[in-house]
Known about the structure:
By secondary structure, this protein is mainly β. Helices cover 5% and strands 48% of the residues. It is globular, with a radius of gyration of 23 Å. The relative contact order is 0.13.
Amino acid sequence: MRKIFIASFLLVCATAVMAQNTDTVANKNIRKGWTFGALPSVSYDADYGFQYGALTNIYYFGDGSTYPEYLHSLYLEASYTTKRYGVFRFFYDSKFLIPNHRLTVDMSYLPDALSDFYGFNGYQAVYNPDWTNDESDMYVSRAFYKMKRDLFRFATDIQGALSNNWYWNAGAGVLGYKIGNVDVDMLNKGKDAEDQLPDTAGLYEKYVLWDIIPHNEANGGWHPYLRGGITYDTRNQQQNPSRGIYTDAFLTYTAAFGDMKDYNNLKFNFNFRQYIPITENISLAYRVGTQLTLAGKSPFYLNTYMNTLFIQRVIYEGLGGGNSLRGIVRNRILSDGFAFANVELRLKLWNFKVGKENFYIGINPLFDAGMVLQPYDINKEQVENNIRENDPSFDMNTLGNYFNFDESLIYKPHLSAGIGLKVAMNENFIVSVDWATPLNKADNGKMSNLYIKIGYMF
């Protein structure tokens, strides 16, 4: 049976926890005191099961003198499905707990029974969507391009001022990954026979069997890290700036131990964003960035993670998916180094009030692009030798279903386009619904994809 999405509903609740007045200064509504937005959701997926949970973002604006900037933000989310896909997260953000410094703290546990895995080097890894379509004659398994991935993350980051909009940044944390094959028995539990996943090897299992993924990194590991860099920021506000520039450059040293001791690595990230006002309610926003491995070895599962100075979203996938390249399947571009770009035209269509809260509804046409800069060395002769040694029953005539060894494809850009809908409360709590489609069908078996998240992507 095709994956079924039965129901998803969004409810934004705005409540002032403390009795504070909303003042009007220079024709602008100023929010004071405490406020929060809550978002419950109910959905069903044939593989994930029934989802239940909620999230909330609590803001404190104090006397309103810094509005729309908040003094403190607390974000909590807990959601789970009957097939063990979950988000359990606490996030704190403040520029005022430590005077003249921004402090963020994130603690998350993210179990994922069906995490995407499409191979290495973008278009060099052939994607066959018919293999996951149970109505196709070529069907293999809906879980063929999946693996099991549980992630625990703890991170704390701090920023201090230098001068003239320049800031220093430092951070520390730990990433704990548990990687493995899809637990088909767990996913099939309680299903009718015709709806069960076949017990067949997926792409991740084949990469491990063929020694493309070395055995010592195949099951994950624990990786403490240290991070430092600089930031230049002239944005007029954090959540939805209409003018200004934000750019950062930073290094992340990630450690590894035991069987993973050879996987210590140093990565470099650079990001540049600009927000250009066109009219009072229209602005152009764009972002370009890169992540490169400068030294050491990085395990494949860390290359699916996009480093960031301040964690705001649940997870930063790189590249592909709703946090990087909308419309393109998650983790489609997996390599040691990559570059990306995002462009949005942001239009506020309607500003209004509900009680004491300030709302607006907006839309944003969007365009995303990404490409490999540092590819894995996928040598045809070596791959064939590994398969002959470890998987002698494999039909070499079908190798083209998994790899395209044309090196010119490695650096071919992955492109997508779409449009988004935004509903914002007090310029900070923003419900985002983005629809996007890939411009190359090799990037997604579906020609349209919907993402429901909190906040703008950048």
